[in-house]
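Handout, section B. The chain below has 282 residues.
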Amino acid sequence: MPCSWINGKLVDESKAVLSIFDRSYLYGEGIFETLRCYGGKPAFLDRHYQRLRQNSRRLQIPLTLSEKDLRFAIGRLLKKNKMKEAVVRATVSLQGATFGVEIPKDPKVNLTLFCRPAALDPRLFEAGVKVFCSQNLINDSPGVADIKATSYLTKMLARAEAAKAGAYETLLKNAKGNWAEGSRTNLFVVLDRTVITPPLSEGILNGITRQVVLEILKEKKMAHREAPITDLMLNNAEEIFLTGSTSEVMPVGEVIGMIIRKTGPFPLAKTLRLEYRRTLGI
């Protein structure tokens, strides 16, 4: 049985429990990060930690663990579970039920970690993945979408749509009718050899991989810009790709619902993935 890490202790997952008064359980009032680990080391831990800290301040959740402590905890967890290529989920929440608007005084902070083997078929990067365009769900509003919070209902409903359609991911529009992001990824399109991704003002999460890809584009002086993505742009795109900690830079081969099909070799997505992995030293 795998082990998880709960408030400083390694615990068998069959015995990993939190109080029913945890506010993440009660209200979705918690924050999390998903980290990809290569060779037993979490990628871009400093960036993930800074986002965790920023969001903890916004939700008034004291973050009692330093970046150094988090790195140590992840190392212990991976070693105990004998994993090197893994995905780690870190969750921070408060404990204490209330029926008003106030947050409990001196609440307990819960910080948990669990891990799973990283399982991504390398053939997906050659063929591209299928994505489903949601017609029923609207992405979270700006001011909420950029918080990686445990109140994840919209994204989980979107994942259910993807599963039903046999797709890798679901794309979501924002209230303006523009394509914003996936349920777990950021969206990029290529038009006239220019890489385009929605700006943060479109109501998206500022993904860590998104940040790194934009930095690579700037460093390599590759044409790129941030702009809203319309139906027409998605239909006419030369390439479409997704970014995320677990997806890296993933090309899209088919968009279900818009009759869009792309065939490899997805040159820009491939180039950016190679550069992304070089930043990781792999």
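Note. The chain has a mean pLDDT of 95. Compare this with the example in section A.
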